Amino acid sequence: MYQQPSLGLTQTNTNGLCDFHSLLCPQHIYTALSGVQTKQSWAMADFHIRKYRDEDEEAVKETFTLGMSEHVPSSFMLVLKQPPTQMVLMCVFCALLTSSKSFLLPILAVTLLLAAVRQAVVYMFKKYIDTCLRIDLKNIGETYLKQKDSCFWVAESDGRVVGTVGCLPAETVPGCLELKRMSVCRSHRRMGIAKALCRTVVDFSCERGCPAVILYTSVVQTDAQKLYENMGFEKMREFVVSELVAKIMNFTLFEYRLDLKREGQRN
Ligand SMILES: CC(C)(COP(=O)(O)OP(=O)(O)OC[C@H]1O[C@@H](n2cnc3c(N)ncnc32)[C@H](O)[C@@H]1OP(=O)(O)O)[C@@H](O)C(=O)NCCC(=O)NCCS
């Protein structure tokens, strides 16, 4: 599969509008220079970033919901890797095996327990997604576009929303902005869209003189961790979510921070 080369993303203007088409599509540059029409044989990163509009609402909610839901299987695996989970499963299996002298009952019981654990993970994600859809994503225009130091953008490709990101003043770190709701459709991954969205938030924060951008991601969002580390964010702290199911899972959240003053000096 073709992987887009890493390129500098510096074309955001003050409206938060970028055109990454020529940057990310070297074959187009080639075509323009040579005047020869070539057939594209690989996935094109033909997209641009623009501010959210009301008609994007459904697409944004869907992109966010799908992006979050895809972490259910890895979260389930995370629970299975926890020693307490393995111990409970083992104890149930051994106790039923000794008492029933048959494999059928313990296997059935362990299967049911695994199904229950999976349901608990699904419940946890569903609850988180519902909360987001009820709070900031309920009225994106109101939450992100009418408030000071807040904004929401989408990545559009072929007239379709394929990526989302927003930012709000960080509740825990006064003066800083928090990057939120980063998600890219599966069909458009590894084309630099998330990097471009992230850069848009960083530029927006720089324009407002914010000292840093912060964000939260979780232990199972490994692609996101790589993305933010690639963009220069540093992991500041990690903590387990206080909810019971999350505690049992040892579901850890990471706080990342990009120091804009340091970044400015570096650039
Ligand atoms: C995380 C996510 C937004 C990345 O989107 P993307 O458009 O594919 O990311 P990009 O193409 O811009 O990649 C940027 C960098 O991130 C890292 N990265 C992203 N996906 C990766 C993967 N599958 N494996 C390894 N590194 C990855 C790489 O460093 C990459 O840079 P490179 O291509 O120069 O190596 C996307 O996978 C997603 O939407 N996930 C589901 C929702 C989610 O978890 N959101 C994060 C909320 S905090």
Automatic annotation (TrEMBL):
The UniProt record lists the keyword Transferase: yes
Membrane-crossing segments per the record: 87-117
Identification of the protein by name: N-acetyltransferase camello
A GO term, aspect molecular function: N-acetyltransferase activity
Keyword terms of this UniProt record: Membrane, Transferase, Transmembrane, Transmembrane helix
Highest taxon, organism lineage: Eukaryota
Lipid metabolism as UniProt keyword: no
Domain spans labelled N-acetyltransferase: 112-254
